[in-house]
Amino acid sequence: MGKNKKMAVKIKKEYASTVIAFGNSGLPLGQRDDLSDLAIIAHQSKDPSLLKLFETLPSLEDLQREKVQALLPVLSAIAETKDPPQE
Amino acid sequence: MLCVLMQGYSRACGGVTGGISDIATFDPSDFNFTQTTATSAYSAVALRTGAVAADGAKVFIINFQDKEAEWTWKQSKNGCATKYEHEFKFQLVENSNTLTNFLQALDAAACCCGLGLFIRLNSGKIFVAGEKYVNAASIPKFTVAQDGSDGTSGKNFDDPNVGNILLKGDYSRNLREFSGAWSAIEALM
């Protein structure tokens, strides 16, 4: 889930084959579809070895906002199933 | 709060499984762990600059005898000084030249650099021991080394022919988790 095309998280070309073990996969960075998660980790940790991987790195606020926005339809669907309309 | 900031301990209600599923070892100088806060689990791990997988900078799986591995820890204090003694025990089947070479590799690591360990419990949680670099900076040394292994050929046909490996390491805290999946670590093997 989360193609995250809106957020311009881009890895530098020279790191496309680099493997960073995070989340559920160890695919090379050029093949990952969860780079936003790595971007959030990089921001929160301020780990220079991760920060250097990114050509474009949106702000932490933007990344977290997009993560929440992706979940909103799911949360709404759950809420509707749980609580039938009242009043 | 007047003296110390306490905290509680709670977990979601439910059963938990014991035992160890997998153990893997690595050279602590090869890998950097990423931690988002001072108390969080490690969320990423990657090769450090200069460490090349093709030259041996990898994570190595240890195929131990099923249901014969255990991690134990014991906390003690001396005044305000606290120590956590960690022990990692696992049984390797068959005394052989391969086992001899593996034990020598453990001894060499202990002398020079320490051993790094990933331990996946049957509960699913993954722990890290012996790590050296966090957020691209070295942390106080956590040296895990072989200390007290033994073995036996057995006497009878149906006696175990095994090595009982014992790794030990003292540190200032319990082990940190790695919050990623084991499949992510397998990519480093």
- Major pleated sheet of chain B: 5 strands, antiparallel
Helicity of chain A, as a percent range: 40-55%
**Morphology of chain A:** elongated
The low-confidence runs of chain B, each spanning 5 or more residues with pLDDT under 50, are none
Assess the beta-strand content of chain A as a share of residues: 5-15%
How far from one another are the termini of chain B?
46 Å
Radius of gyration of chain B: 18 Å
Topology:
The complex is a heterodimer of chains A (87) and B (189).
Chain A: E1 10-11, E2 20-22, H1 35-45, H2 48-51, E3 54-56, H3 60-82
Helix pairs in contact in A: 1-3
Chain B: E1 20-26, E2 31-35, E3 42-47, E4 60-62, E5 69-78, E6 81-93, H1 97-112, E7 116-121, E8 126-129, E9 133-134, E10 137-138, E11 145-146, E12 150-152, E13 162-171, E14 176-178, H2 182-186
Write structural notes for this entry.
The complex is a heterodimer of chains A (87) and B (189). Chain A is mainly α. Helices cover 44% and strands 9% of the residues of chain A. Chain A is built from three helices and three strands; from the N terminus they run ββααβα. Chain A has a two-stranded antiparallel sheet. The longest helix of chain A has 23 residues, at 60-82. Chain A starts with 9 loop residues before the first strand and ends in a 5-residue tail after the last helix. The model of chain A is unreliable at 1-5 (pLDDT under 50). Chain B is mainly beta and 189 residues long. Chain B contains two helices and 14 strands; from the N terminus they run ββββββαββββββββα. Chain B has helices spanning 97-112, 182-186; strands at 20-26, 31-35, 42-47, 60-62, 69-78, 81-93, 116-121, 126-129, 133-134, 137-138, 145-146, 150-152, 162-171, 176-178. In chain B, a hairpin with a 4-residue loop joins strand 7 (116-121) and strand 8 (126-129). Chain B is globular and about 65 Å long. In chain B, 29% of the residues are buried. The mean pLDDT of chain B is 96.
